[in-house]
Design a protein that fits this description.
The protein contains 15 helices and 4 strands. It has 384 residues and is of the alpha+beta class.
């Protein structure tokens, strides 16, 4: 009786029981399992995925993870520098931060911050602080980290021009900036599949009209049209309406708008519409919408997922840039771009460089999303 030949994937140890070890494993494995086997070999993509999941997890529970509310301020600690978190005191684990002291120049009256080592502020986990209501459902004052005594200064990343905690505001900002990417990509994905599917499947004059519309939108410079649309948005609009308007602008005319996805979908539909399973569905009386969303789109769903993961960081950067220029979200909305508005003055950055920390948060999440998307894109073709 012939023995079954063992085929080992290149670069994988023979002793790893989680890897496919036989031709049967490779033949019966689903596409998603093959994608997972290939994706987890991409170490940077795995690390990026963990960072992205951590960002979104913290954003979902922003009220709990932030030491204070984004509006809480202590006016005597305006532009206070970051406090260094100390973990050990008198040879035992007892987290704390030192208090602040300052002195003024007798001529210019400029304030210079000092570390007051005589003032010790105990820091704890799961402490009581500012009261909040999460999603309008859960009211609590429990915070993951913060000073054990409410009202004490606790600025791990420094404070802003109003004495508000930058670390807490970055956490709250992540909820807005990260969801702009998700909502914007969801809108552009829906429009792209719809318009690209019609263009590639129906063809004829429908294809010509949609393609000319795409070319028209792609030929418009982004910045001037953003300026024009931002000028149209009334200044007295509520924050939620401005949020959705900004997201809609990015989804319709941004660099990663629906036009890019529509062209990708059209090219795939042009190659798929001659396939046997598509012709069989047509002969069976399948409607156009069912043919697109039930039969054709799932056949290249992995490619769509890869495109989405690479488009989200573009949306995040676009929203940050718009808000930084004052064209997108505006205070009292808290986003990374709105926070970076305080860093537009070079002299202020020279004395308070910690105002740039929201930009570091953008850099980390965009880099992680690009690594994650790159791994998804490579894994989308598991047979390669």
């Amino acid at each position: 009786m012939a023995q079954k030949q063992v085929i080992q994937q290149p670069g994988l140890p023979l002793s790893d029981p989680t890897q496919p070890s036989t031709t049967v494993d490779l033949e019966i494995a689903s596409q998603w399992k093959l994608m997972w086997w290939k994706f987890r070999k991409h170490k940077l993509a795995m690390a990026g995925g963990i960072v992205v999941l951590l960002y979104y997890f913290v954003a979902i529970l922003a009220e709990f993870f932030a030491p204070s509310l984004p509006t809480t301020y202590i006016d005597q600690y305006v532009f206070a520098p970051p406090q260094r978190l100390q973990f050990f005191q008198d040879g035992r684990f007892d987290p704390f931060v030192y208090g602040y002291g300052f002195e003024r120049d007798p001529v210019s009256f400029k304030k210079t911050w000092l570390v007051d080592e005589e003032t010790v502020i105990p820091v704890g986990l799961f402490v009581r602080g500012d009261e909040y209501t999460m999603y309008g459902l859960i009211t609590s004052d429990l915070h993951f980290i913060g000073p054990e005594e409410k009202g004490q200064p606790f600025y791990l990343l420094g404070s802003d021009k109003s004495g508000r905690d930058i670390f807490s505001r970055i956490i709250y900002s992540s909820r807005v900036s990260l969801t702009v990417g998700l909502v914007g990509v969801a809108i552009s994905l829906t429009l792209g599949i719809l318009m690209g599917g019609l263009s590639g499947l129906v063809g004829g004059w429908v294809d010509n009209v949609i393609q000319r519309l795409i070319e028209l939108l792609m030929s418009i410079p982004n910045l001037p049209i953003w300026l024009a649309l931002a000028a149209v948005v009334p200044i007295d609009w509520p924050a939620l309406r401005v949020y959705f308007m900004t997201t809609l602008i990015l989804a319709v005319i941004g660099q990663y708008s629906w036009t890019y996805m529509a062209r990708v979908v059209r090219s795939r539909f042009l190659s798929l519409r001659e396939e046997d399973f598509v012709l069989a569905a047509m002969l069976d009386g399948c409607s156009t919408w069912r043919l697109i969303f039930k039969h054709m789109v799932p056949s290249f769903l992995s490619h769509i997922i890869a495109s989405v993961t690479l488009a989200i960081p573009g949306m995040i950067i676009a929203e940050t840039a718009l808000s930084f220029l004052g064209l997108g979200l505006r205070p009292p909305v808290v986003s990374w771009g709105v926070m970076l508005q305080d860093s537009q003055k070079v002299g202020l950055i020279a004395t308070s460089p910690w105002l740039l920390y929201p930009g570091l948060a953008v850099f980390i999440v965009v880099l992680a999303l690009n690594f994650f998307g790159d791994g998804i894109r490579d894994a989308a073709d598991p047979y390669h």
